[in-house]
């Protein structure tokens, strides 16, 4: 069985390690990060060229199954995979790590709504962790932002008053607590990414009584089969391989 593993996440790397070399896998990365952590086994990098490109690639490479282990907010890739796998009748599994419980966070549906919430509540010092493209909605804001992202946002998409920190998780509770305190943060804006690598900021914000604005996940395409953990995904692959 030949499997395409859509990656770009820690789960994608752990799954590749669990399957390679027993299963013939090829991992795929979008190619956004200049120096990505690479999964074991064969890797291809870059977009497929939309739905048509993905359809061609899956056929050319004689792919029998796809595991989509992209980030929960990588909605376009997930939609393309669901459409093309449906058309070609290729089994697809979406490895979707469980979402965080938003608790008392203000839950919004988009970066734009998060920006409106910041303005409405007049938060003036914000820790913004919605990623490279997530800064765009905040460009017109007069608040001050501590922006943390893996890769640098486009300069035109940055708010006027900010400090940019480029780094990659995992992050730890004590460091997050110190970061929030040192920068006198009044609100945290985050996606509901889920997982342990970046959740310490929520715990730290909770301990300091800092309000959280949380962007809800985009819905998954209707009818897709999901796994909540790498173990579940490994079992799904094993069942297919033994069929
Ligand atoms: P997206 O909006 O869903 O994808 C945009 C386009 O990027 C897709 O249409 C596809 O191009 C290409 N692409 C995305 N993931 C790909 C993959 N694994 N392999 C090959 N092409 C891929 O996704 P995104 O938000 O730009 O995220 C890109 C990558 O970064 C994903 O692998 C994701 O796991 C990772 N990531 C995203 C976030 C986030 O918050 N969005 C956070 C951490 C990591 P074509 O249409 O040309 O095929």
TrEMBL record:
<protein>
    <submittedName>
        <fullName>Precorrin-6A reductase</fullName>
    </submittedName>
</protein>
<dbReference type="GO" id="GO:0009236">
    <property type="term" value="P:cobalamin biosynthetic process"/>
</dbReference>
<dbReference type="GO" id="GO:0016994">
    <property type="term" value="F:precorrin-6A reductase activity"/>
</dbReference>
<dbReference type="Pfam" id="PF02571">
    <property type="entry name" value="CbiJ"/>
</dbReference>
<comment type="pathway">
    <text>Cofactor biosynthesis; adenosylcobalamin biosynthesis.</text>
</comment>
<keyword id="KW-0560">Oxidoreductase</keyword>
<keyword id="KW-0169">Cobalamin biosynthesis</keyword>
<dbReference type="InterPro" id="IPR003723">
    <property type="entry name" value="Precorrin-6x_reduct"/>
</dbReference>
């Amino acid at each position: 069985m030949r499997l395409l593993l859509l990656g770009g996440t820690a789960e994608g790397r752990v799954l590749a390690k669990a399957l390679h070399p027993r299963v013939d896998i090829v991992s795929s990365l979008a190619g956004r990060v200049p120096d990505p952590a690479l999964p074991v086994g064969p890797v291809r990098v870059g977009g497929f060229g939309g739905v048509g490109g993905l359809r061609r690639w899956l056929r050319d490479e004689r792919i029998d199954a796809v595991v989509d282990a992209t980030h929960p907010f990588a909605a376009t890739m997930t939609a393309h995979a669901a459409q093309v796998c449906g058309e070609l009748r290729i089994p697809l599994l979406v490895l979707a790590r469980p979402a965080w419980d938003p608790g008392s966070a203000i839950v919004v549906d988009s970066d734009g709504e998060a920006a409106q919430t910041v303005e409405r509540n007049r938060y003036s010092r914000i820790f913004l962790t919605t990623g490279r493209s997530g800064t765009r909605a905040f460009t017109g804001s007069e608040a001050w932002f501590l922006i943390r992202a893996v890769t640098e946002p486009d300069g035109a998409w940055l708010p006027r008053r900010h400090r940019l920190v480029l780094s990659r998780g995992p992050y730890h509770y004590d460091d997050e607590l110190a970061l929030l305190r040192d920068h006198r943060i009044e609100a945290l804006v985050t996606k509901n990414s889920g997982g342990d690598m970046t959740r310490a900021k929520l715990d730290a914000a909770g301990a300091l009584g800092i309000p959280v604005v949380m962007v809800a996940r985009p819905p998954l395409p209707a009818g897709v089969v999901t796994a909540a953990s790498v173990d579940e995904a490994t079992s799904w692959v094993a069942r297919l391989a033994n069929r």
